[in-house]
Design goal:
Length: 182
Amino acid sequence: MDDHTGPKILTRDCEAIRIPSGETFTLAKDSAVTVTQALGGSFTIATAQGLARITDANADALGITVAAKSAEAEASTEKVDEQSVWQQLRTCYDPEIPVNIVDLGLVYDCTVEQPENSAAKVNVKMTLTAPGCGMGPTIAAEARSKIESVPGVSEASVELVWDPPWNQAMISEAGKMKLGLI
């Protein structure tokens, strides 16, 4: 998705989420924006009003086509592999940091509950880089949505927790390399 970065003109009014407050607002059609990060199906943009995030549902306003999501996960009782959930979590990004939430060390716990011949329920505990981050509910909702797209998952719960407090030592080696910390 990185090839979608750069200047764009919005083709229609578009809902966006202000960074870092998490406030939802509308950007007007014909607004000039610059896509600064296009990762995991969401887009961080610089606007005249500051940074914002546009979800994949509004990518068309940027002139970007995103592949449609499959509806097969909803009805499936397919056995859910925990690694497939972790893989989906690796497609969620902090809008200000080009590293996924797993490699940032924000996901503390992931459990899959799946009685035989039933759809799975996934429970995730995660944190944020700072407790006051207004983007927390947005990032958690994106993680929940992406988990629920895994075949066999019928429900996901993403809880924001603050213990232990996050610190840079929690970033994976891959994340540190991406951030230039090693």
